[in-house]
Amino acid sequence: MASALRDWLDKPNTGRGVHLAADDGGWDFRGYGELASAARRTAGALIEEGVRPGDVVCLILPTDFTCIETYFGVWAAGATVCLITPPLFQDGDDYVAHVAAILRQAKPVLVAASTDLADYAGRAMAQAGLPGEPWLPRQAAAEAEVQPAGELALLQFTSGSSGAPRGVMVTWDNLEANSELIARSAGFEDDDVVASWLPLYHDMGLIGCFLTPIARQGMLRLMRPDHFIRDPARWIRCFAEAQHTAAPPFAYAYCARRVKPEQLEGLDLSGWKMALIGAEPIDPHSLEVFAQLLEPFGFSRTAFRPAYGMAETTLLVTMDKELRDPLAVRPDRESLSFGKPVRILEQHSLGRRSVGAKAGWIVGCGTPEEDVPVRIVDDEGRAMPEDVLGEIVVGGASACPGYFAGAEAKSTRFIDGEVYTGDAGFFHEGQLFVLGRMGDSIKVRGRSVYVEDLESKIAEVSGLGKGRIVVVGVPGAGQKGLALFAETLDDAWVPEVRETLRRRVGEDVEVTIVVGTGLIQRTSSGKPRRRYMWERLKDGRMDGARVVD
């Protein structure tokens, strides 16, 4: 299969390329001609190792030129790329178990790893029952011809679950359609520059800020996440030249806390066109404090592009592409029930009064494009009108066909070419407002944390046993939440469990703990009816339930 996303490998623009952040604060540059040649020589080495079109190749590599060359080398060899996160906050054994779970499902013909990650990769391969050793990226003497490709461009594995990662199958058609949607919505022009620190194993960093600009041979300034954490002003200084970027809400608030105006002296940010915000529910406070920091340097609030997307829809679903200040609303939390009207208590465009508007506030994520239809449905799958809460359902060419190797999720489902996202939301004044996950996961710092993993840990800490614990991800306006249902009348274990959850998901996740008997409802196949349980509790229909303060 041909793909416009690979065309640059045959026709590189030698005057453009990638600026890669160096550890000393400088930048290293390689043009697309040099990168294309290295990728095709890497493809030659992969073909020598037996990689064929349609095969899956897993990459465990840090963000560097070797990663870029190997990534496109896999594509040049016609294979499917599966990027696996390097170890971040997991200890060695947990990380190895997580990678092994991915490898068991992906069944790659080759696992490429950097020298410093080869030991982890080797241990994971052994646990997964894969023969051989990790492949250290190398280049053949001659450039290979770009090979025909199989149906799948990517396997995007959901992050955060050590027990059951799920690989989203992203076809070439999915990826081309979504990349085109991103460029069109962002107003990406031929000579625009993108700057990003997002990790490449995450869909927003990979597709939005890496594959899309490279496929169009735009200039790219690429940092590692640790570069951003150590010196967020370095990212902001990129926009003296760059026009586009993306980041989760916490990153904008982090910049506002860490960056001092004197670090930006002399900077002109008036050319900054787009700062996309996504990956988790958006609170207006994070955006406003960032805007107030940068306003004296020419930054405009109209550059903010609140967006909604997920790996199962390739990436982007909606983005507010209008040249306007983002719209924030505060719904009445008591009105947030599926299939029921949402009562809006307050609303305003982003500005000075947005400071302090955190929990309870959410920001609009734009109006869907015609080629990415979005609807809101109730529990029976019936379409809901504007200002009624329900599940977000996405169709169109970006909707992926499913999870690899028959894996399933409990909240996200693929039905008749549409993705039932498991996210709660509603339309208001034509814009999509997203409350967040309802069911089997929540987003924490852009990472999916799965309730099954939390249940296992809570069962261990509380001593209750897993069958007596059910955790539900619950949406709340501008705030993430968890509800823990425990089949017991005793609550002596609650303080220790609260501390465990604080360490796992942070202090900004609201936790509701419910004890009692007869609380846990299950399907005929034995799966917990998570959303149903939460709705019953909210509606006062859960007899014998007691919320523990």
Automatic annotation (TrEMBL):
This is AMP-binding protein. PROSITE patterns: AMP_BINDING. It comes from Actinomadura nitritigenes. Residues 27-404 form the AMP-dependent synthetase/ligase domain. Belongs to the ATP-dependent AMP-binding enzyme family.
